Amino acid sequence: MPDPRSTPNAARHMLWLSILTIWAWIGIAAFLNESQLNDSLEQFIWAQSLEWGYWKHPPVTSWLLYLPLHGLGPSPGWTYVLSALLYATTVLATHKIAELLFDDDTATWAVVLLTLHYGFTRRAQLYNHNSVLIAFVAVTVLLTVYALRDQKTWQWMWVGLMAGLSTLVKYQALVAFLGVLVAIASAGKLKASARGLVWAGVVSVLTLTPHGLWLLEHDFKPVRYAVSFLAGPDWMETTQRQASFWVAQLRFHLPMLFFMVLIGAWKFIRHEEGSEPQRIRWRPEQKAWVWGLCAFPLVTIVFVAWAMGARVQSQWGLQLTQFLCLPLAHVWVQKFGPLNLRHLWAWGVVQVMALLIFVGQATGMI
């Protein structure tokens, strides 16, 4: 079977195929749903007016829905449209991040792996703070990579604006941005970027100031809601919730893991050349970003659960693990080479199987 090397055209085609696949999942879910899901319904209530905050969360997610609801007319379809646009933005930004930090082949594999995550398939129909958060964080990280490369003040100001807006989506964004700072420091670029980071911080604070004033006037309701998940240290409850969280993350990655097993088994059975173990090569900058974007958030969630007794929620994992596709894709390219037709066949099989299970469950056949 042909094993074409990844080319710019092939990578571009796979990028758009990945986006179209996510859109297909959203469209099928919209067709099968008898009503909006709870998180989406919640947004329809809050989006009736523009506020600097709402009792449960910061305002940006509701602002985004407010625009089509009041500008183009009410429709239950707007949440699906917004989800489709946000997930497309996440995929596009992640692809470019992988391209800049790694290479074209890794970028192609990264978006393929994203489409094998539950959050980007059967749960992509949800319009909530998590679906908005991953898009805003991905764009912020992309802008940061550009700013680190070019060190232009205006680029750092854009980073600050997007970081502020991301925090106005969900306070969890702060964990991601602490991870970005860890990546910058680990890459040895903290001193060179100090002036830019100051500019980013100033713009971010200015962006958050109106919301801060709103919090003062409204008894810090969203903050109190966030703090309510800190239930106090209880060893048994913490253990159970941690176990539940990690089991949920494993379940969300099951299609991706099944796909990897298929490819690995095929290569092993065929005794293809290059199947022997080989050392994975990492540049220092790549290691820094993997630590900051992937390892740091996961270490943080363990710390928050054990040290602070937080009642960790499975949906938090969507953002905490959104960049795992980068190191996985990098390893995959070096182990199995660029995406080829055999990989696409396996990817298609997994997608169809997952979709049939989803349709069966939605229609009551399973």
Q: List the helices and strands in order.
A: HHHHHHHHHHHHHHHH
Quaternary organisation of the protein chains:
single chain
Low-pLDDT stretches: 1-5
Q: CA-to-CA gap between the ends? A: 36 Å
Largest sheet: none
The Cα radius of gyration reads 21 Å
| Class based on secondary structure composition and strand pairing | mainly alpha
- The backbone outline, from C-alpha atoms, is globular
H/I helix tally = 16
Fraction of residues in β-strands = under 5%
Helix content: over 70%
Please tell me the overall pLDDT.
89
Number of strands: 0
Task: Explain what the structure shows.
The protein has 366 residues and is mostly helical. The longest helix is centred in the N-terminal third of the chain and has 25 residues, at 8-32. It has 16 helices and no strands. Mean pLDDT is 89; it is low at 1-5.
Provide a quick synopsis of the model.
With 366 residues, the chain is mainly α. The chain has 16 helices and no strands.
Helix-strand blueprint:
Elements: H1 8-32, H2 38-46, H3 60-71, H4 78-101, H5 104-114, H6 129-150, H7 153-167, H8 173-186, H9 194-217, H10 221-227, H11 235-252, H12 254-270, H13 284-308, H14 317-320, H15 325-336, H16 341-362
Labels describing this entry:
366 residues; 71% helix; disordered N terminus; globular; single chain; 0% strand; mainly alpha
